[in-house]
Amino acid sequence: MTQYVKTPANPAGRERQRLAFEHLLAAFDASAHQPPLERWLYLEAAHVIGQNRLALHWRAHWRMLAFARQLRDGFETRGQWARLGLTPLGHLVRRMPQGNTGRAIVPAFRAMVPSAAVRERISQALAAVGQGAEPAASDEIH
Question: How far is the C-alpha of 40 from the C-alpha of 58, rounded, in Å?
Fold first, then answer.
């Protein structure tokens, strides 16, 4: 399977990736009035865009854990604890299931193409941080 988001090789691309990740978390924070299923899409998009960098990947799962606890969703909470444990290991062995949205409702090791709604949020975040809606070639989004 082709990678969904590749870690940019150049510093400008990495900064753009980080800014898009931060944009998605800010959008999640600003979406408190939306239904939980809509809010999850921001966290899923942040997971997809940040999963190839340990710090961003960890933060995505930490925010997912906090949201699952807020919702009192035991299944998702347990799943996020498990993923927080697996995240460093995945980075150590360099095995990330590309495109995986990070929720407990999807298998942790399955590569996937994110939903259209998640891809749209990623495109919006990349557009918001510059260089238009299309990612740089180094961002490789399919």
Answer: 16
Residue 46's closest CA among 94, 103, 3, 2? Answer: 103
Alpha carbon distance 69, 58 (integer Å):
17
Distance of CA 121 to the CA centre of its chain: 10
Domain ranges of the chain: 11-136
The structure's pTM equals 0.86
CA-to-CA dists, residue 132 to 16, 72, 124, angstroms: 12, 38, 9
Residues 7-36: tens digit of each pLDDT: 677 888 899 999 999 999 999 999 999 999
Q: Name residue 56's amino acid.
A: L
